[in-house]
User: What shape does this take?
Amino acid sequence: MNTIELKKNIHRFVDQADERILRIINAIIEAEIQEGHPTIPQWFYEELDKRRERHQKGESKSSTWEEVKERILNR
Assistant: This one.
């Protein structure tokens, strides 16, 4: 599920949520704000979606964890 689909699902859920659920969601948002977590911009998620799609189609080079470790250790 990509970012746009996630947002649509969340919007639909929030639109139908009762007060208890809305308070829970609000508490999560407030906790994130208080902890000072930066908001990740939308363009970042869109780029991740593009890269994931290219990877799944075999259009990008990828390596196993073992291959990555071997390259690093052989430097």
